[in-house]
Please model this.
Amino acid sequence: MIYTTLIEPHELHALLVNQKISKSDNLLVLDASCSITEPDIGKKNYAVEHIPGAVFIDFDKYVTGKVAKGTGRHPMPDRAAFEKNMQAFGVDSSKQIVIYDQGGLGFSTRLWYELRWLGYERVAVLNGGLKGWKLKNLPLTGTPLEPQPSESVTELEALEVPVQMKEVQDNLKTHEFMLIDARPETRFHGIGETIDHKAGHIPGAVCRSGSECFDENGFFKSAPELRKEFLALLNGKSPKQVIHSCGSGVNASVNLFAMDYCGLFGSRLYPGSFSQWIDFEENSVVTD
Model:
């Protein structure tokens, strides 16, 4: 079976057991745990406990591009460099890739998005992340695993195309796209902003926090439930008329992933998001 969006903890566990028995190398598990406020927390936690067979990938070093004024806090990396780095981690088209983080799944879904940007379809996110794995009482280890580079990376057609700021600027006039902001409502309305140097949101955006995609235990809601919620939000708009944004394109990827998971394909990600938008004086910000 090929997984392209979500994989359940018991399904990953079965794949890991099968890999150990068959001694195959057709499964690659990546631990993308990170924190915006404490970037090293993923590496520290990996040294204590992680899913057996998982390789740690430093999100800020390998998934995020070079940060500068006007890029946003988590810009897309250089595509050629990212492809080379993923080869060093063992990514290739013959493998089933599974990504998880400590919970919240913004870092996992952003890496999922970027691997699709390289053209890889057999990429899945572990439902519930490490938190969900532990809730299911599945095995953990503290033994680190070094990445095993793949021999080559096949050039593939991109499955995702990032939205540039110009398209969001143009949309202020055309209103062709619905801009969905995945930040909490407080930050969306400019209340209690502690991360970005301006508060508020891009004009015309609507708020749907990425956290709304999850149940009380941090697992994604069912596909039918997500589909119902997003269709109500879209109110007749096509998924292809949706652009996802947040603070820096991390939590926005949760909403994009959730739409794909429930069969609403074609929405796109604005990776620069609000943190890029506010670096340009010509871009207005609202708090209504």
About this structure: The first strand starts at residue 6 and ends at 7. The chain has a mean pLDDT of 96.
